[in-house]
Amino acid sequence: MKLLPKKEHQYIGARMNFIELNLIESARRGDSHGLNRLFSQHQRYIFNLMLQLTGDVALADDLTQETFLMAFRKLHSFRCQASFRTWLSRIAINLFRLEFRRKTKHYSLCLEKITVPSHQDNPERVVIKSELQWCILHNLQQHLPNKYREVLVLRDLHHLSYKEISEILGWSVSKTKTCLHRARQMFRQQFVNNKCKAFADDYLCICEGMLEL
Q1: Same fold: 1-105 with 107-213
Q2: What is the C-alpha to C-alpha distance for residues 61 and 50, in angstroms, rounded to an integer?
Q3: CA–CA separation, 182 vs 161, rounded Å?
Q4: pLDDT tens-digit profile of 146-162?
């Protein structure tokens, strides 16, 4: 496999490792191995992100596929100025926004379809009560404007840094922090007003950061 020149990856540091940089270069040349490896490394993250934003498994899967198709078509334009995951997230968020503008109706979530990712190192902290999971995702997807939903999911469910979120959403770090603060306020207000807090009294939550706002 051809190695990238040192100057192309030197400033990336820990955010993008040497192996991934070479996979990207391989994928740019049309190598299927490179494409498949990049897909397998990031597919779960993008799918979870889309599922948390849409609440629809089929739609999340479609948007995930569209994200990677668009990314591979535009791979030549990726300049390593942000991490590959950040670049993918930006594409996925833009596709979500386009879909949201086409389909803005208020819909109910199907409990059987909800899959909330757990922290692998703390499996005992996963909520068993499906009602609480439903409340959290329903409030995110139905009672928060898009920009607040996006920043809350990226920060409190995926634990991205303010800088990464700013790059994904195209905001300044200052705006990111302000919108996150507002998003947390709105989520807390909806969570309490909709009586969802009652579900959390005797259970630990999969996204404790939200319940402890």
Answers
A1: no
A2: 8
A3: 17
A4: 999 999 999 988 999 99
Give the burial string for 14-28 (b: 16+ CB within 10 Å, else e).
ebbeeebbbbbbbbe
- Fold for domain 1-105? Rna Polymerase Sigma Factor; Chain: A (1.10.1740)
User: CB 205: neighbour CB atoms within 10 A?
Assistant: 20
Domain-wise residue ranges, the chain: 1-105, 107-213
The model's pLDDT over 32-58, given as tens digits with 9 standing for 90+, comes to 888 888 999 999 999 999 999 998 899
Q: 29, 72 in Cβ contact below 8 A?
A: no
d(CA 175, CA 177): 5
Cα 155-117-82 angle, rounded to 5 deg: 40
Helix (H, G, I), strand (E, B) or coil at 120: coil
End-to-end CA distance of the chain: 48
Residue 193, pLDDT score: 76
Gap between the Cα atoms of 169 and 158, Å rounded: 14
Closest listed residue to residue 84, CA positions, set 62, 64, 68: 68
| 3-class DSSP assignment, residue 206 | coil
> What top-level class would CATH report for the domain 107-213?
mainly alpha
